[in-house]
Write a structure and sequence with these properties.
- This protein is about 35% helix and about 25% strand.
- The chain has a 6-stranded mixed sheet with strand order 6-7-8-3-9-10. Strands 2-1-4-5 form a 4-stranded antiparallel sheet, covered by helices on one side.
- Helix 7 links the parallel strand 7 and strand 8.
- Helix 6 runs parallel beside helix 7.
- The chain is globular.
- The two termini are about 25 Å apart.
């Protein structure tokens, strides 16, 4: 994880994000116990492991949502875990994208407004943001759903809207936590195909938490988290 002089590999170029010796407990319960993960720019990495292994906690530490008790997180040469909360929030807004298991769409907004939300938060003019958002609906096979709200869409449709929201601002890193966990096999395959295709087109790095081997098969590399540590790292067999 480090070069000969002890500096982070992120600073040498080619690495997008790196967690080093991450430790985090929730009260008396340890979640991470010295986890290390280094992800290259443009790489799609699947993080797998049993329930309670610490894989989602690792994702949230790398994304700056949680701050580890000890250890270091580097993003693009910056010490992310040492930033103030306002700086981490700005980083999440401007350079990261997120997709969660249940989409977490804003129910009061239409589908196109949900997709446009990251652009609006960055200060993009509303009409420009909505125009960019609408351009996603054809490639996600959602034509005609632009003005629908969450209650008017199926689970698969809602998750595709959430995927568009995560990718619309061309994030440097997309964090996906069980993005197909609430979907049937057909919709899960559709979402993963779209996610990986668009991420590769944009050059986005993807860190994907899943417990499903069929989902991990879309990644370039698979890592296994057990007992709060990354216990193995191997390329996914295609």
């Amino acid at each position: 994880m480090t070069g000969a002089n002890g500096s982070s590999l992120v600073q040498a170029g080619g690495v997008a994000i790196e967690g080093r010796n991450l430790v985090l407990s929730f009260g008396e319960t340890p979640a991470l116990q010295g986890a290390d993960l280094c992800v290259k720019r443009g790489e799609i990495v699947a993080v797998m492991g049993p329930s309670g292994s610490g894989k989602s906690t690792l994702l949230y530490c790398l994304a700056g949502i949680l701050v580890p008790d000890s250890g270091e997180v580097y993003f693009d040469g910056q010490r992310l875990d040492a930033m103030r909360e306002a700086e981490r929030s700005r980083l999440r807004r401007d350079r990261f994208g997120f997709v969660f298991q249940f989409g977490q769409l804003v129910p009061e907004l239409t589908a196109e407004e949900n997709v446009a939300l990251p652009l609006l938060l960055r200060g993009t003019h509303r009409e420009e943001a909505l125009r960019e958002a609408r351009s996603w609906f054809e490639q996600l096979e959602l034509e005609g759903m632009e003005r629908h709200r969450t209650g008017e869409m199926s689970g698969g449709q809602s998750q595709r809207v959430a995927l568009a929201r995560g990718l619309v601002a061309h994030p440097d890193v997309l964090f996906a936590d069980e993005p197909t966990g609430s979907l049937d096999s057909m919709n899960g395959e559709l979402v993963m195909g779209l996610l990986t295709r668009v991420a590769r087109q944009q050059g986005s790095t993807v860190i994907l938490v899943t417990h499903e081997p069929r989902v991990a098969a879309y990644a370039d590399r698979e890592v296994i988290v057990r007992d709060g540590r990354v216990s193995s790292m191997a390329p996914v067999m295609q």
